[in-house]
Amino acid sequence: MILNKILSTIKQIRDLEPQIFLDYDGTLVPIINDPEKSYADSELFYILDYFFRKYETFVVTGRSLNEIRGFIGNYNIIALHGGIYYINGNIIEVYNYQKYVNVCNNIYDNRDEYLREFPNLRVYNKNGGILFHMGNIKNSDERRGLLKKVKYLGARVNMDTYMGKDILELRIPYINKGEAIKRIRNTSRPAIIIGDDITDEEAFMENADAITIKVGNETTVAKYSINFELVRELLIDIINIK
Ligand SMILES: [Mg+2]
């Protein structure tokens, strides 16, 4: 079965000090409608503790650095899809990061402009990104109207507009998880990358030599696909490899 297949591949590279890149939402924790409540549970802390002790491990996420640190603590993190890094206790920002923080603060301060028109919308300031959460907007006309407005806004402030499951997001341009992981990687060492989202496809594509694992059954360029329910099982199996 699929886990055995992945495990035997990992066994072959285990002694070469693989670097491990784990997405958070939809990979390590389920996606829920209240994104501010995605705290790590005790099983996940057990897994993360082991991985960060045994391997060079990074949690790679679209969330803001503060938010993800609030959920998991002070592990190595690539946040905002690679807009900001937290590595061995040091914060590293990409070029122009502060400029986008200011742009986002400005949009967030004026969020009433959007909330008046879309009362079920939730807006989150990610300090270098803005998240428009549509989980409570059921009407598809309303969703389309919002998309149009956010795209226009993105073009005006020179940020990328991204569409995900129930979300629209403004992101720092020219940044993606694939580039971010490449920047961190030591190319003489193997890598294991696990993620569930379209943003993780860039990570898989840009790191074609890595052991890439897609979570979910959508089309992917990753070498393997597993269901969300199997991710922790796989990680625990890796812990127990003798
Ligand atoms: Mg994800």
Mean pLDDT: 96
Order of strands, main sheet, comes to: 5-4-3-2-1-10-11-12
Enter the CATH topology name of the largest domain. Rossmann fold
Count the domains.
2
- First CA to last CA: what distance? 19 Å
> What is the 3D form?
globular
Helix fraction, binned, reads 40-55%
The CATH class of the largest domain, by name, is Alpha Beta
CATH superfamily of the largest domain: HAD superfamily/HAD-like
Largest beta sheet, briefly?
A: 8 strands, mixed
> Which residue ranges are poorly predicted, with pLDDT under 50 across at least 5 consecutive positions?
none
Explained architecture:
It is a single chain. This protein has 242 residues and is an alpha/beta fold. The chain has two domains: 2-94 and 175-239, 3-Layer(aba) Sandwich (Rossmann fold); 97-171, Trehalose-6-phosphate phosphatase related protein, domain 2 (Alpha-Beta Plaits). The protein has helices spanning 2-13, 42-54, 65-72, 97-109, 112-117, 140-157, 177-184, 198-206, 228-239, and strands spanning 19-23, 56-60, 77-79, 84-87, 90-93, 122-125, 129-133, 160-164, 167-171, 191-195, 211-215, 224-226. Strands 5-4-3-2-1-10-11-12 form an eight-stranded mixed β-sheet, with helices on both faces. Strands 6-7-9-8 form a four-stranded antiparallel β-sheet, with helices on one face. Helix 3 links the parallel strand 2 (56-60) and strand 3 (77-79). Magnesium ion is lined by residues 23, 25-27, 195-197.
